[in-house]
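Students often ask why inverse folding is considered easier than folding. One informal answer: many sequences map to the same fold, so there is more than one right answer. In these notes we will look at a single instance of the problem. The structure comes first.
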């Protein structure tokens, strides 16, 4: 088949762009011809993949969004007979599949209005980018599916958010989480990593170690986690919070909060890391009470290490965790007292599992759920959707 993929920037190393790259490479390997319509890409010699440049007007953010949507439509309309399926990873105007990796923009704006600063209100009021994105999304989520096709979302939460603002039937949605390479983590070396990393971080083996992974500390609820740690330390003999991720302003604010609460010696700001597996191996509990997040890949990675997970209701992955009953989903913004209580409950439960000899079974259950997001499984689902749409289009053209 001839497949077109549309996204502003092709970068096989970051975020949703990485998901597009994985899909493109998989399609090419099975023998499909893939053309990526993009404004910028890393020069790579990838068999079966071609790149076509879509120019953008880069004078302002709203012009970037609008010009890319219009010019990508121009290129696709000019060449649309060549393609069996068009997959959009960015907001555009012609597609058979839209992968909604970004949150519904109206939902995002509502969140900013509720939780943001004065500058957020001013931006929402005067920045035409929001109007442009909303109009494009209105077309994507049109009641006439022939205009824009199927919608691939990362979780059931995304469906709820989109249907809150647009009349989109359930039949147009397909839930496909991000494709993750979980096999890169060497679980059989977990104990070795744990001992080595705890020694390097000067963490005793009996210290309850909490782990936060992710940038954008305000949205991921790190402030609430630090407040919960301060409460926990009043009753728990020893605990520590490791914060992995980058956020310049957020780090400054959270360090200030830690000092005010008297827990600065119990919070370690690690920054960005390349070998994240070492920290999953070190931790006892993964805690990210996200206020707003389309998925939260780090929660799945934590489960792949057998860790107990506390996730905020604002994260898309909360649907999977709650549905599989392998973690705790907390209302957001998280109440620090409730969060501290949940952390202590989980820590005590883990001790019981160890004493009963069932800890390996519990960890295996968590890993089993995590591997539902293994890239081979996820890509298989995506390829099935692509093939089904191609078949429908072929039958429609025959009729």
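Output (designed amino acids):
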């Amino acid at each position: 088949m001839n497949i077109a993929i549309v996204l502003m920037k092709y970068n096989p190393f970051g975020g949703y762009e990485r998901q597009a790259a994985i899909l493109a490479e998989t399609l090419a390997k099975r023998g499909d011809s893939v053309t990526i319509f993009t404004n910028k890409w890393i020069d790579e010699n990838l068999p079966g993949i071609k790149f076509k440049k879509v120019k953008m007007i880069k004078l302002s953010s709203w012009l970037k969004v609008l010009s890319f949507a219009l010019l990508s439509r121009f290129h696709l309309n000019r060449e649309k007979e060549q393609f069996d399926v068009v997959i959009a990873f960015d907001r555009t105007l012609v597609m058979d599949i839209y992968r909604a990796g970004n949150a519904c923009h109206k939902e995002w704006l509502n969140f900013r209005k509720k939780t943001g600063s004065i500058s957020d209100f001013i931006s929402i009021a005067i920045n035409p980018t929001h109007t442009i994105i909303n109009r494009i999304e209105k077309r994507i989520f049109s009641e006439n599916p022939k205009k824009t096709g199927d919608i691939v979302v990362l979780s059931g939460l995304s469906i709820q958010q989109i249907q809150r603002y647009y009349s989109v039937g359930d039949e147009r949605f397909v839930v496909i989480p991000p494709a993750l390479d979980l096999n890169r983590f060497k679980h059989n070396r977990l104990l070795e990593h744990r001992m080595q990393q705890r020694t390097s971080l000067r963490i005793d083996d009996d210290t309850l170690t909490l782990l936060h992974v992710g940038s954008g500390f305000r949205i991921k609820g790190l402030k609430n986690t630090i407040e919960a740690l301060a409460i926990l330390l009043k009753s728990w003999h020893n605990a520590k919070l490791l914060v992995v991720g980058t956020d310049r302003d957020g780090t400054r604010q959270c360090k200030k909060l830690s000092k005010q609460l008297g827990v600065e010696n119990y919070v370690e700001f690690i920054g960005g890391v390349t070998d994240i597996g070492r920290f999953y191996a070190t931790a006892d509990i993964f805690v990210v009470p996200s206020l707003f997040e389309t998925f939260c890949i780090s929660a799945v990675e934590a489960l792949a290490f057998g860790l107990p997970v506390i996730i905020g209701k604002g994260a898309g992955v909360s649907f999977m965790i709650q549905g599989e009953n392998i973690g705790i989903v907390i209302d957001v913004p998280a109440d620090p007292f409730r969060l501290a209580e949940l952390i202590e409950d989980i820590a005590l439960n883990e001790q019981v599992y160890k004493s009963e000899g069932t800890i390996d079974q519990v960890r295996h259950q968590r890993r089993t759920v995590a591997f539902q997001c293994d890239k081979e499984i996820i890509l298989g689902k995506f390829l099935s959707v692509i093939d089904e749409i191609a078949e429908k289009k072929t039958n429609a053209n025959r009729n």
